[in-house]
């Protein structure tokens, strides 16, 4: 799994570097975080548009390929944001594994974090 994560991380790095170079983009960390998170919000809206969330309208068939494509667009921006804040593919894997274990501990009521006792 980590090899696949490393592969898509490196692919995104290459795309990001191409866009920055070809378009002559210069941004501060703040500007990158704001810009990428705004793009992610836009992608979330596009994901939502692919499903039947409007209870006042007749449902439509869900185009699963289009929905999956929008989710992948979100992955592009998530990988870009990860890179901008200094997370490597290995960091993403390690910190995710640690946080996932903590989230399970919270659900088990064994976390030191308050508010999760069962």
UniProtKB/TrEMBL annotation:
Keyword Cell membrane included in the entry's annotation: no
Pfam families: dUTPase_2
Lineage: Bacteria, Bacillati, Bacillota, Bacilli, Bacillales
Alphabetic keyword roster: Hydrolase
One GO molecular-function entry: hydrolase activity
Superkingdom of this protein's organism: Bacteria
Name this polypeptide is given: Alpha/beta hydrolase
InterPro entries for the chain: dUTPase/dCTP_pyrophosphatase
């Amino acid at each position: 799994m980590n090899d696949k994560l490393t592969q898509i991380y490196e692919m995104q790095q290459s795309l990001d570097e191409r866009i920055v170079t070809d378009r002559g983009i210069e941004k501060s960390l703040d500007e990158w975080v704001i810009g990428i998170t705004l793009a992610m919000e836009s992608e979330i809206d596009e994901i939502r548009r692919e499903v039947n969330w409007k209870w006042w309208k007749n449902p439509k068939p869900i185009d699963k390929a289009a929905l999956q494509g929008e989710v992948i667009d979100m992955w592009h921006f998530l990988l870009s944001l990860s890179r901008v804040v200094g997370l490597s593919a290995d960091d993403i894997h390690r910190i995710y594994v640690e946080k996932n274990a903590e989230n399970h501990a919270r659900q088990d009521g064994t976390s030191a974090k308050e508010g999760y006792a069962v």
